[in-house]
Amino acid sequence: MGEMIQARGLVKRYGEVEALSGLDLTVPQGTVLGLLGPNGAGKTTAVRILTTLLKPDDGEAEVAGVDVIADPNGVRRRIGLSGQYAAVDEYLTGFENLQMVGRLYGMSAKRAGARAKELLERFGLTDAADRPSKTYSGGMRRRLDLAGALVAEPPVLVLDEPTTGLDPRSRQQMWDVIRDLVGSGATLLLTTQYLEEADLLADNIIVIDQGRAIAEGTADELKSQTGGERIELVVADGARTDDAARLLAEIAAGDVIRRDRGLSAAASGDGAGQLRALLDRLAEADIALLDIGLRRPTLDDVFLELTGHVAEADDTQTDDATEEVSR
């Protein structure tokens, strides 16, 4: 399996702002790499470099075996890009938008039309094919934009926060579309600030913060960095919280975290066995519970552990700010 995207030591500065600080990444053929980070982490800057829209100040990168600096046109012939905002002409119909993209790639009118119809059907847009895209919902526009990125059947697809701003239903629809692409063997670079999205779609994840990769691995590997499973419970009677915390501390590993009547602690070893033992001890002590369970850490937990802040938080070094500086 070859490496379809490689980047080594990418650096990009905007005045005194360093948007990328030596970023390395690799995407093997037929896999999905999730580039995970908050607004301003440098995700979009990395995408712009890999898609030839920006030149790095240092470092090197190849896409589908082509150097992004030495042969940008060669890279463009091998990629499809769907950005944060749907790049569709709102006065053209869905069919006309896709046909236009095909013609720009040098397809004949017949071939471009056939490809447009094929993609409209694939993305569930056939019924809206002859409507101006300005009448489309946000989710439909994003699907049309993604279809446009696939017109030339590129070997590499770059999706820059493809579900930003979508409602939950539209986001789920986009996830279904992306899963289909992955199932067909596409190579994807997916940037996102949605932890659930990276968890569901990516084979491998790089967590990026302030322009640097701070962790890499599968979702399970990253989750294991937070100490594995956690035992969580809520005590019915607040006066018994101290007693419950003492029993939890005797069984669990590490410190007990308290939030009002809620308690949690990392499990060690057999989490299910520890949970059963704790239930027995709580029953013997006549401590009633409102809730109890064994929970695996989420990628939210991972990000907070690695960076000290949540993934949705804005950073002063936002991509919007760096774009403004670059103008």
UniProtKB/TrEMBL annotation:
Any one GO cellular component localisation term in the record: plasma membrane
GO terms for biological process, alphabetical: daunorubicin transport; doxorubicin transport; response to antibiotic
Subcellular location per the Swiss-Prot or TrEMBL entry: Cell membrane
Entry annotated with the keyword Cell membrane: yes
Presence of keyword Translocase: yes
Ranges of residues in domain ABC transporter: 5-235
Membrane topology summary: Peripheral membrane protein
Molecular functions per Gene Ontology: ATP binding; ATP hydrolysis activity
Family of this protein: Belongs to the ABC transporter superfamily. Drug exporter-1 (DrugE1) (TC 3.A.1.105) family.
PROSITE patterns given in the database record: ABC_TRANSPORTER_1 (PS00211), ABC_TRANSPORTER_2 (PS50893)
SUPFAM superfamilies named among the record's database cross-references: P-loop containing nucleoside triphosphate hydrolases
Protein name, entry field: ATP-binding cassette domain-containing protein
